[in-house]
């Protein structure tokens, strides 16, 4: 039996409304509703409170709600994807800002040696990161709402693509002001 159905049955057995249950375990009524409909699952603190309230062991709650363990594993995988995404995004932003700063200091020397290679590296990093995020989402069947940061990482990656595409124009503009 899924944990949401079991919670709904236990709540009915104890003749509690969602609002009364939410007050007893210090969460919102909407959270109870999300648990019962299977949209989300309780965190560990809430599970302990539920086990105490309904006089159940945590084993019963976790084993009877076997999707609970699966959801915890899925969240762990989503966190891993998000962590790598943020790391690669940070590296991309660092490379981009370093490139723009160094190019502003000595445009002729820096552009001659590194100009186009930096842009290729950035494009490679961003394309690779987007591919990695997409494949991990499919591999672990993670939805966007389960890993909200992932959606934001992808938006920023696409923004970086736009900046990289405009980079030559940005660098030329900065150089023009530096020479004036």
Give a nutshell description of this structure:
The protein is mainly α and 180 residues long. The protein is 83% helix and 0% strand. The protein has helices at residues 3-13, 18-25, 29-37, 44-54, 58-64, 67-105, 107-139, 148-179.
Notes on the protein architecture:
- This protein has 180 residues and is an all-alpha fold.
- Helices cover 83% and strands 0% of the residues.
- It has helices at residues 3-13, 18-25, 29-37, 44-54, 58-64, 67-105, 107-139, 148-179.
- α6 (67-105) packs parallel to α8.
- The radius of gyration is 25 Å and the shape is elongated.
- 15% of the residues are buried.
- The mean pLDDT is 77.
Per DSSP, the total helix count is 8
> How much of the residues is beta strand, in percent?
under 5%
Low-pLDDT segments, ≥5 res = none
- Compressed to H and E, one letter per element, the order equals HHHHHHHH
State the distance separating the first and last CA atoms: 73 Å
Number of strands: 0
As a percent range, the share of helical residues equals over 70%
Oligomer status: single chain
| Computed CA radius of gyration, to the nearest angstrom | 25 Å
Shape descriptor: elongated
Main beta-sheet annotation: none
Mean pLDDT: 77
Coarse structural class: mainly alpha
């Amino acid at each position: 039996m899924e944990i949401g159905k079991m919670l709904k049955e236990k709540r009915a057995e104890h003749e509690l409304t969602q609002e009364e249950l939410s007050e007893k375990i210090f969460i919102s009524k909407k959270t109870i509703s999300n648990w019962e409909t299977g949209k989300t699952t309780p965190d560990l603190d809430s599970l302990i409170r539920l086990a105490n309230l309904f006089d159940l062991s945590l084993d019963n709650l976790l084993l009877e709600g076997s999707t609970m363990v699966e959801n915890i594993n899925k969240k762990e995988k989503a966190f891993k994807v998000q962590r790598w995404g943020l790391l690669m995004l940070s590296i991309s932003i660092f490379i981009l800002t370093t490139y723009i700063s160094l190019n502003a200091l000595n445009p002729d020397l820096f552009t001659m040696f590194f100009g186009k290679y930096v842009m290729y590296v950035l494009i490679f990093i961003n394309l690779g990161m987007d591919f990695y995020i997409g494949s991990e989402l499919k591999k672990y069947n993670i939805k966007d709402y389960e890993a909200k940061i992932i959606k934001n990482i992808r938006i920023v990656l696409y923004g970086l693509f736009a900046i990289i595409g405009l980079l030559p124009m940005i660098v030329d503009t900065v150089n023009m002001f530096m020479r004036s």
